[in-house]
């Protein structure tokens, strides 16, 4: 977070607060979300503090939040924080940490990253003079593709532990009690910015076709169940665009591959992703199909200078799905009470 942007955030918060008060909406809280990067990188939560370059604006923000009892909203993504920031074993990201790794901070033992992250923030806020400020988790989740350890099995495991933790209402050593939390996110977003990596497009509990990816009990009863399947989803026909295998002009092959991935979502092919280990030919097919599906399976979008061919046999491989796109509402019409494709 850059200082000038933080300064602007504080000004906007003050303006929103004044406007809400003038409208007689003093009970409405004005806030904004923060990443864990507002903190200095430390091993122990008790040593945590806001970064020196933004400490002034952060304290100003806390003052604004404190006026109306507004919680401090934090966005936390343990998979990224553990690997890229802390450089710890990935087991530390899970509540059922199966390793012997732990962090001993004085008389407090941390066996998972989430409690450590919350208390690190709590210490920074406490040092700024607001020990009783509530912390709210505005975003937390686990991606299923596009990153090492990002898969369905780990996502199910992480959420199972997280929801048990939330249901217990025990909180953390420094912040005991229930913690309001928002899961991120309901479905994958194939146009989401990739600031930190391809995995940012794969946070969804649901696939784009409305099918849940894994078991998760949103009722907090720790049941071994899948969430409700989405209704009203209309998929395109079972057909895919494949690379026909012609490698006589590799410049053309590479150019069309780049064209497809520039327009469509090829994050499944990146290092650590579900399709990263497939063959060269299959990667070209994956890219061609992603483009073909994005443009509603129009025949001309599977040409690629004669390198593409439309097939009715699913080319998906083990752990690598070649998706079929769903129809947007504007691409559907209703006739006699039935949804049909335009």
Q: What does this 3D model show about the protein?
A:
It comes from Anisodus tanguticus. GO terms for molecular function: hydrolase activity, hydrolyzing O-glycosyl compounds. The protein is an alpha/beta fold and 342 residues long. 30% of the residues lie in helices and 11% in strands. The chain has 7 helices and 10 strands. It has helices at 3-22, 55-67, 78-86, 113-127, 152-168, 250-263, 280-294; strands at 33-35, 72-76, 103-105, 108-110, 135-140, 181-183, 240-243, 308-311, 332-335, 338-341. A 4-stranded parallel β-sheet has the order 1-2-5-6, with helices on one face. Strands 3-4 form a two-stranded antiparallel sheet. Strands 7-8 form a two-stranded antiparallel sheet. Helix 1 runs parallel beside helix 2 and helix 6 crosses helix 7. The longest helix is centred in the first third of the chain and has 20 residues, at 3-22. The chain is elongated and about 65 Å long. The two termini are 45 Å apart. The mean pLDDT is 92.
């Amino acid at each position: 977070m850059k200082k000038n942007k933080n300064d602007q955030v504080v000004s906007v918060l003050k303006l929103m607060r004044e406007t809400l008060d003038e409208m007689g909406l003093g009970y409405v809280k004005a806030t904004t979300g923060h990443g864990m990067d507002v903190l200095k990188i430390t091993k122990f939560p008790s040593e945590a503090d806001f970064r020196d370059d933004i400490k002034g604006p952060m304290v100003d923000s806390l003052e604004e939040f404190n006026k109306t009892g507004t919680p401090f909203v934090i966005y936390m993504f343990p998979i990224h924080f553990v690997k890229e920031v802390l450089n710890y074993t990935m087991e530390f990201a899970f509540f059922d940490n199966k390793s012997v790794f732990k962090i001993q901070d004085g008389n407090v033992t941390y066996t998972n990253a989430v409690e450590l992250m919350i208390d690190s923030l709590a210490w920074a806020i406490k040092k700024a003079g607001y020990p009783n400020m509530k912390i709210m988790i505005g975003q937390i989740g686990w991606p299923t593709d596009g990153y090492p350890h990002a898969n369905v099995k780990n996502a199910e495991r992480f959420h199972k532990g997280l929801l048990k933790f939330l249901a217990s209402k025990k909180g953390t050593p420094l912040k005991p009690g229930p913690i309001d939390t928002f899961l991120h996110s309901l479905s994958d977003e194939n146009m989401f910015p990739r600031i930190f990596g391809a995995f940012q497009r794969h946070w969804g509990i649901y696939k784009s076709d409305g099918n849940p990816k894994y078991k998760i009990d949103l009722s907090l009863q720790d049941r071994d169940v899948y969430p409700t399947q989405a209704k009203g989803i209309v998929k395109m026909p079972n057909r895919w665009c494949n690379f026909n295998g012609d490698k006589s002009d590799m410049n053309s092959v590479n150019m069309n591959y780049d064209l497809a991935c520039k327009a469509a979502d090829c994050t499944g092919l990146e290092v650590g992703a579900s399709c990263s280990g497939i063959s060269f030919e299959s990667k070209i097919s994956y890219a061609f199909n992603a483009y073909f599906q994005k443009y509603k399976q129009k025949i001309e979008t599977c040409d690629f200078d004669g390198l593409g061919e439309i097939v009715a046999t699913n080319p998906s491989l083990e752990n690598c799905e070649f998706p079929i796109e769903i129809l947007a509402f504007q691409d559907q019409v209703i006739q006699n009470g039935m949804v049909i494709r335009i």
